[in-house]
Amino acid sequence: MKKALVIGIALVFGFAIFMVGTPTTAQAKTTFVTIGTGGITGVYYPTGGAIAKMVNKKRKEYGIRATVESTGGSVFNVNAIMSGDLDFGVVQSDRQFQAINGSPNSEWAGKPQKDLRAVFSIHPESITLVAAVDANIKSITDLKGKRVNIGNPGSGQRQNSIDALTAVGIDYKKDMQAEGIKAAESAGLLQDGRIDAFFYTVGHPNGSIKEATAGKRKVLFASITGIDKLLAKYPYYAKAVIPITFYPNAVNKEDVQTFGVKATFVTSAKVPDNMVYAITKEVFENFESFKKLHPAYKVLTKKGMLEGLSAPIHPGAMKYYKEAGLK
Ligand code: GLU
Fold this sequence. Notes:
By secondary structure, this protein is an alpha/beta fold. It folds into 2 domains: 24-124 and 262-323, D-Maltodextrin-Binding Protein, domain 2; 125-261, D-Maltodextrin-Binding Protein, domain 2. It has helices spanning 2-21, 44-56, 59-62, 74-83, 93-101, 157-167, 183-191, 207-213, 228-233, 273-285, 287-291, 315-323, and strands spanning 31-36, 64-69, 88-92, 116-132, 147-149, 177-179, 197-202, 219-222, 238-242, 256-268. Strands 1, 2, 3, 4, 5, 6, 7, 8, 9 and 10 form a 10-stranded mixed β-sheet that branches. It is globular and about 55 Å long. Residues 38-39, 42-44, 73-74, 92, 125, 155-157, 201-203 line the site of glutamic acid. Glutamic acid (GLU) binds next to strand 7.
């Protein structure tokens, strides 16, 4: 009796799942995918928008409708992709490395995110330290005793700020007043005199930094040097320069020395191959027009977009790379 009931329920459920999973011709066969980005004045947000636009153009062919979500940044994106709340996301290359390896100095210490998958890498990002001229900050070493936004906990930049500060002997908990606010708010806080400086790991040029340099309070980029040991220790960090031509309102006359990472596009092993294939194909087949969508993409090459990845490449992306002779 009990057994018959269980079988009965299983049949009803099975049928229901069959009905849901099999759209009739009257239903639109569209699958919605969500791409996690960052603050709307950063580069991740328009990047997600550019990718979504390319795949949405082929909605009839792929049956995919991509939407973009503004989020707290890299760490948030990795975690939301792993929990299934997001399908794709833009994530710093150092964060990708830490998440897949469960690196000790990260949010994923001892907890490797085994299902994280790489799709491609995008623009370079540099650890950018923006400071008010009246706060007498010219270099990262001048941050002692200052009020500094090091980044919200979901952001990519927070650990970069901490790494750089630690490398120059500054304890962010004791030696300064560290704030954990979203990057989108930094420019306003700096102009209002509520912080002396902020860190932002971001591609250049971008709206947030332009906004910070465009106000009444004079602003400069502080250099981040004396970090050779840090660069030697972590494979994902490399020296970088911020071209000052992008920010004519900043006080600096010369390009700014710092270090950097790369923005990367990631997903989960659980996301179906055909979706990842479609997105990868559209971005690569329309590479020249993609490059024109943001000035930070100027340096991109197809080959370069397969570098800086540490998680395994998703099989859907790999299928395209093999077809295109890129792998
Ligand atoms: N790199 C930042 C982060 O991971 C986001 C930068 C952007 O939005 O362009 O949080």
